[in-house]
Amino acid sequence: MTPHVLLVDDDAEMCRLVAERLERRGTRVTWFTAPGGAIARLATDAVDVLVTDLRMPEMSGLALAERVAANHPDVPVIVITAFGDLDAAISAIRSGAYDFLNKPFEIEELELRVRRAHQHRRLGAEVRRLREVVDATAGFGDLVGESAPMQRLRATLARFAPSDATVLLTGETGTGKELVARALHAKSPRRDGPFVPVDCGAIPKELIESELFGHARGAFTDARAARKGLFAEADGGTLFLDEVGELPLELQPKLLRVLQERTVRPIGANREERLDVRVVAATNRDLEALVDDGRFRRDLFFRLEVLRVSLPPLRERGRDVLLLAQHFLRRAAERAGKQVAGLSSPAAERLLEYAWPGNVRELEHCMERAVALASYSEVMVDDLPERIRSYHGGHWIVTGAEPDELVPMEEVERRYILRVLETVAGSKTRAARILGLDRKTLYRKLERYAARRD
User: Fold this and answer.
1) What gap in Å lies between CA 244 and CA 281, rounded to an integer?
2) What value, to the nearest 5°, has the Cα angle with vertex 139 and ends 135 and 141?
3) What is the CATH number of the domain that holds 433?
4) For a disulfide at 232, which of 125, 170, 227, 228, Cβ 3.0-4.6 Å?
């Protein structure tokens, strides 16, 4: 968006020259030689940034900055000071100015400060908007987000919710797979039945069959009483099998039979019991790769993948980061009994820059920490974890300026493939799709890279 800059300086020639050069670079400029005209324009026109000289006869730049901060706090002010006048610069910031610039200055430097101030204003407006809409965000269940990936996700869930077919949720750790499963249940005809979550990776291998399917009295040592399994507990509702890729291979045929026949036989029981359960399974692993490696049954994979939903990582959801941050911040502030209303613009900027390898779960923990540390009504940059404060998005350099820094095309390909794999958290299926390769070709390349390293 083209910023609208209000320029105030008692030197008309200076104003004309600066305005002409900024407008050449795509900035709209309105200028005045007296602060009174600028104050009047602020009341009637949308202004993104105000740039003012410090020393003017009618009103000083400091007084103008104070007046703008009081009446138009969303408009950042840049004060132009004499070279080396550090005390004046400090006074300008204390008066509410966003930035200062020493004379003489290059027009490119002024343009950079203006762009930065404009971005600061836009982020501030976005944060204020999020405070107003976070509770009213159009969502599916408790899912929060306005980005295109989230709109597609909600549309998919709306189509899948009325069905009884098995659903497989895939996505990186922390993307909210259980929340999606609960949303599916809440919007389904089974909403009045139980929702039973189970983490397949957290149950010891020797207990998981009994936990899922139950056991009869005396079925094994210590089975002093019959026990209903989680499938039976979910009868009439939804069973959520999280981390389904962790199921032992020897147990997978029994799960397949339960899904196909809709019956379950507890350990040691003589007869099968009918079930009315919808299964939603989830994994952050590449099940197709596990199938190819012989660690997951192909027929079970197909039975689980009747309907498939891929959850987008947080780094692909754009400004949903700020919407979610506001949502988690408000919830954490209520629990802590603290008056923390939102994010400061610099903190919001850091959240948008960060890559979020831990996805939504990492953001939630970040906001809990920020609220616990907050000393003001807004979360400041210092309240964020060090890894977020110091994060700088990396740029992958293929070649350098010197001949000995250049690499063969095969090495460029290797680095890029490994970078894509890192970005998608090791999912070979997603990486192959992004790279435009079939999985077997990708596997061959990775095996060759590993052999070369060895």
Assistant:
1) 6
2) 100
3) 1.10.10.60
4) 228
Q: Which two tokens stand for residue 449?
A: 């890279």
Do residues 278 and 187 share a domain? Answer: yes
186-197 pLDDT, tens digit per residue, is 999 999 999 999
DSSP one-letter string for 22-42: HHHTT-EEEEESSHHHHHHHH
Q: The domain spanning residue 272 has which CATH number?
A: 3.40.50.300
pTM over the 0.90 mark: no
Q: Do 124 and 251 reside in the same domain of the chain?
A: no
Whole-number Cα distances in Å, 204 to 147, 191, 212, 242, 245: 39, 30, 12, 14, 14
- Give residue 313's region: left, alpha or beta (phi > 0; psi -120 to 50): beta
Task: Give the 3-state secondary structure of 341-374.
Answer: CEECHHHHHHHHHCCCCCHHHHHHHHHHHHHHHC
Please indicate, yes or no, whether residues 324 and 289 belong to a single structural domain of this protein: no
Q: In the numeric block, which tokens belong to residue 123?
A: 């982020």
Number of domains in the chain: 4
* Model pLDDT for residues 342-386, shown as the tens digit of each residue: 888 889 989 998 989 899 999 999 999 999 999 988 899 999 999
Q: What's the gap between Cα 70 and its chain centre?
A: 34
Among 79, 102, 133, the domain-final residue is 133
How many other CB atoms are found less than 10 A from the CB of residue 34?
A: 14
Tell me the pLDDT band of 249, cut-offs 50, 70 and 90. very high
